[in-house]
Description:
Elements: H1 12-15, H2 18-37, H3 49-53, E1 56-57, E2 72-74, E3 84-88, H4 90-94, H5 100-104, H6 109-112, E4 125-127, E5 130-133, E6 136-140, E7 146-153, H7 160-165, E8 170-176, E9 191-192, H8 193-208, E10 215-228, E11 237-248, H9 277-291, H10 293-298, H11 302-327, E12 329-330, E13 352-353, H12 377-392, H13 398-405, H14 408-424, H15 434-448, H16 452-458, H17 472-485, H18 491-497, H19 504-516, H20 518-524, H21 527-544, H22 548-574, H23 580-592, H24 602-613, H25 618-627, H26 656-668
Helix pairs in contact: 8-24, 8-25, 11-12, 11-13, 11-14, 12-13, 15-22, 17-22, 19-20, 24-25
GO molecular function: ATP binding; metal ion binding; nucleotidyltransferase activity
Organism: Dissostichus eleginoides
Protein name: Selenoprotein O
Amino acid sequence: MAYLAPRLGHFRIFNHSVSACRLLGTAGMADMGLALSRSPLERLDFDNVALKKLPLDSSEEPGVRQVNGACFSRVKPQRVTKPRFVAVSLEALALLGLNGEEVMTDPLGPEYLSGSRVMPGSETAAHCYCGHQFGQFAGQLGDGAAIYLGEVKVPPGQDSDLLRENPSGRWEIQVKGAGKTPFSRQADGRKVLRSSIREFLCSEVMFFLGVPTTRAGSVVTSDSRVVRDVYYSGNPRNERCSVVLRIAPTFLRFGSFEIFKQADESTGRQGPSYGRHEIRSQMMDYVIEMFYPEIQRNHPDRVERNVAFFREVMLRTARLVAQWQCVGFCHGVLNTDNMSILGLTLDYGPYGFMDRFDPNFICNASDNSGRYSYQAQPAICRWNLVKLAEALAPELPPDRAEEVVDEYLDLYNGFYLETMRKKLGLLKKDEPEDEILITELLQTMHNTGADFTNTFRSLSQISCPTEGEGEEEEELVRKATELLLQQCASLEELKAANKPTMDTRELAMLLSMAQSNPALFQMISDRATIARQLEILSKLKDLMETSQEELQSKHAEDWSGWITRYRKRLARELEGQSDVRALQEERVRVMDSTNPRVVLRNYIAQNAIEAAENGDFSEVQRVLKVLQKPFSSQPGLESPAWVGRGQTTDQGERDEEEEEEEQQQEAASSSTARTPVPYDSKPPTWANEICVT
């Protein structure tokens, strides 16, 4: 890392009054010089309220252990060797009152933001929580890799919208990947470049897409190594330890309240603070007073306050998952311990933005049952709210909680339809038939394998009907059809996408078992999984009997029919409007500010990761810059500057061991040389090889 020379402007401080400097004396001058040379991170104003208001584990015993009767445990981050920045988010660091460029050039910056050095005022700790993972209560989980550094006071002049979203007046900061905690279980508390870059980039793109999220201020990598089996193939390799700085009003989650759970009927596990009802009350008081102050002020009755709090969490959750669905985002691990108590997108692991539209899209390769598929997300979030309600009882009466949960589906549908109407440019009228039009669009996208992001982005190019259009209408529909056909999958792509994930012999055995031994069948599979495999087989059979020409003709017919219905609906938008041109312009503006031009597709993240693993961090920084304006075209930033596995642009970042590991990786991979594609294009063929677990 090269450091910029100090700015000469600093010396102007001394030029205003030479006599004042003389009065300070030698000691005073030394103190002033020290203040000027301090790291900007040493000037952060910490006020660590969570550790004052919530129970803190009295034990500082190292190693993994059960933490009883506490919400936090003190921990010591572990140093890494030669930490250095991969990238920083200027906008995220500004939340803390930091100038990102100063942080990037600060020699102590990577030390502090990797946990290798502790900032003045910081108190390092790890949060204890539990969770239902894939539907089963897992008992104590907690921050196994994330370490709380403290809470930084909001700097003067922070945007009023941000203050409304974060009324606590503080930002909690964490480092993720800084070593073991009492909650690390069998893991080492470390993260690598792959996971760190993915979390950093997605945290920021979600913010710029307008989706509530935790933020990421920086990624630091190092020369320290950990062993990871990247492909779960039995060929582990050394990877660089890397650390993400995470920022949020709080990282408390649904699972934070599950530490009080009694022994679970299915797993037998119970929360580490079972029976400690006073801590539950303490946590609820803290969360509501700090993050929901209006509810605290408006509801003097404790029960009514708690019901209002749960209703607000429910509303935020419904709105959040509606926003996910509308940008094609799939979280991947929607366990209760990954659900924010503030309605933020939390914990970016095996997430994915959909490429080809598929309601059964599963971004997490280890989610064999499809529990957390794209179309399952709204229902899973409701299920998680039920578990939160159970965790809040008796502070939250179960009958009142049930009434609130019953409101969820209507709220979700309302949020979803509101955004979908904007995506289609339906701004002036809400018609009951709109829901059918949206459903037919998604069905057509599914049937044709259309790209989710690019299809919606293209809709603003479909013109509204005008008076006297006459014979031109057929030509306009044809051109619009050609436009959307460009986003559809080829026959070979659809065949590849519809390969069953289950061997046909295994499927036949399970079908037989479902009839002969239903009890055993339910232990090892489920009817939904089998039905999905049969549907895929049926679709594959049809595709095998179809030619590319026949498929293209069918796709054109499907799109032509939908576009005709869509334009008729657009015509009704114009009824009674005096300035049709202004309405047309508003429609395009709203659509293009709702339908992103670019999202963080897996192949974009993977390309940036491989560049960073080859010592070139510029692609991570470039992708961040592109994603900060996801709705806009940015001349000069249309395509990646780094493409291809095995290329090296900075030999200084690599060593013999790393090159040997890469050769092994190349041998295990079928990747060929890649051709660069624009960030806003459909994914290239090699993207099909990416597997995220």
